[in-house]
Specification:
43% of the residues lie in helices and 18% in strands. By secondary structure, the chain is α+β, with helices and mostly antiparallel strands. A hairpin with a 5-residue loop joins strand 4 and strand 5. It is flat, with a radius of gyration of 30 Å.
Length: 458
């Protein structure tokens, strides 16, 4: 085996966990297609019966709804970006970067929303910072900008793609290996698909790309395809930025086993209810019973014989249903949504103050998530600014409003604050900038930057 193909000792066990958690989050046909991995067979259960239970399987995806609720609530308003000191070409770059950070048309806020969901599912998210490759060496910064070599962009890396790594004593990457796979055909009329595997090696200054293509049962030869210095070489750091979710905030790890237990219990109850619909005939007779029984037949008995039906009394059904409710409530409780009571929105009307009180714990968790996302964004943007030598200070704020209050309440609070008579022009400008950026959260970044400059110049 080529050294580049080796996996970290911790990787195989983590990969199994990630696959299970992705199935639990996605649900639907993906989960049903792998139901045998999660639906537990009964002791000595006949194979045909187990297969029928697998065919009838269904999945109530509570944890998927919870993760999506957190992402939607946290990013209800986009994070606010400020680039102090950016002028000319740098200002234009950051405005374009905020609207298209991966050269695929993805806004920076949408990119990190997906990274946040990834962290809740797998416990970590990874962002690779890269720069376009240029054939010629630019003579100066203006030429580099014109050639597009300074147009940094981001690449989202799933944890499954980070197969090997080494950390220094400070927890920084010394080197890392990423692995990508894809299927392709050179021509549509080709008979077989080809499987291409790419390994990307990054250390503090250099990168190497290895590729191998396999067709059918042929052995795959891995060869060096490209090498050179990467975009953060001058900073002497690996261009991969990780954001690890704490154990207490890794929602799939907290609720995954409960979701699996709920899945098996709900399917067992569903199977029992289905079987209970088909009553079993009981013949009370001393002679051998050889008659056919069914809707198109009749039963002939002796005068002393009796005929009846068996059906369950229902006590075990009630206990099972109560247990399912308790499991559902526990899933929400360990995800800090105990007040939801099994649903993410209640039917009763609540005042803003009442909602804020009920969601106090959830708000604290959301603020913790927001701080982690903002820190991840700042580290990435700071590294890009240093690599481009823009000499800018990056500020990321927001992600602290969770639909508990309305913008009208913020305006009232700001008016009261400014009405105190504090003689501070800086305070007034900062309040105005905060209100303007929140109101213009969906506007383009260049529009926000222009508004901020006008407020500062006033």
């Amino acid at each position: 085996m080529n050294e580049i193909e080796r996996e970290h000792p911790d990787y195989p066990a983590k990969a199994q966990i990630w696959a299970r958690y992705r199935d639990l989050y996605t649900g639907g046909e993906q989960f049903k297609g792998r139901a045998r991995d999660y639906l537990l067979p009964r002791l000595r259960e006949p194979r045909a019966v187990y297969q029928e239970r697998v065919d009838r399987v269904y999945y109530e995806n509570h944890i998927g709804s919870i993760v999506d609720w957190y992402a939607a609530t946290l990013f209800r308003r986009e994070p606010m970006l400020s680039f102090h000191g950016a002028e000319g070409g740098a200002r234009n770059f950051y405005a374009a970067f905020a609207d298209d950070c991966d050269l695929k048309g993805t806004a920076l806020s949408d990119f990190f929303r997906k990274q946040f969901i990834e962290g809740l599912i797998t416990g970590a998210s990874y962002v690779l910072v890269d720069f376009p490759r240029v054939d010629l060496r630019p003579a100066n910064r203006a030429e580099e900008e014109a050639m597009g070599g300074a147009r940094a962009y981001l690449v989202a890396c799933a944890p499954e793609e980070v197969i090997n790594w080494s950390l220094d004593r400070r927890g920084q990457y010394e080197w890392v290996v990423l692995r990508n796979r894809r299927l392709f055909k050179d021509k549509v009329e080709d008979a077989e698909w080809k499987a291409e595997t790419t390994w990307l090696y990054y250390d503090r200054e250099n990168y190497r790309v290895y590729r191998g293509v396999q067709t059918g049962s042929e052995d795959m030869d891995v060869a060096l395809a490209d090498e050179g210095r990467h975009g953060l070489a001058k900073l002497r750091r690996v261009p991969l930025f990780a954001s690890e979710t704490g154990e207490g905030q890794w929602l799939l790890n907290r609720a995954g086993l409960l979701q699996l237990e709920h899945f098996n219990k709900s399917n067992a109850l569903s199977w029992a209810l289905t079987m209970g619909l088909f009553a079993t005939p009981v013949i009370y007779s001393e002679k051998t019973f050889e008659q056919s029984v069914g809707e198109a037949y009749f039963v002939q008995l002796n005068p002393q014989d009796r005929f009846g039906w068996t059906e369950p009394e229902g006590n075990v059904y009630r206990i099972a249903a109560e247990n399912l409710v308790r499991l559902q409530e526990e899933i929400y409780r360990v995800c800090y949504l105990g007040q939801a009571g099994g649903a993410l929105s209640g039917g009763r009307q609540q005042s803003g103050l009442s909602k804020e009180r009920d969601f106090s714990l959830t708000q604290e968790v959301l603020r913790g998530y927001g701080d982690a996302v903002k820190d991840h964004m700042k580290r990435v943007l700071k590294a890009i600014g240093e690599a481009r030598e823009d000499n800018v200070q990056v500020s990321v704020t927001g992600l602290d409003e969770f639909d508990i209050g309305e913008f009208r309440m913020e305006l009232e609070d700001a008016s009261k604050l400014l009405g105190l008579g504090v003689k501070s022009e800086k305070l007034e400008r900062e309040v105005m900038k905060k209100l303007a950026l929140k109101y213009l959260c969906d506007a383009r970044q260049d529009v926000k930057d222009a508004v901020v400059r006008e407020i500062e110049a006033a």
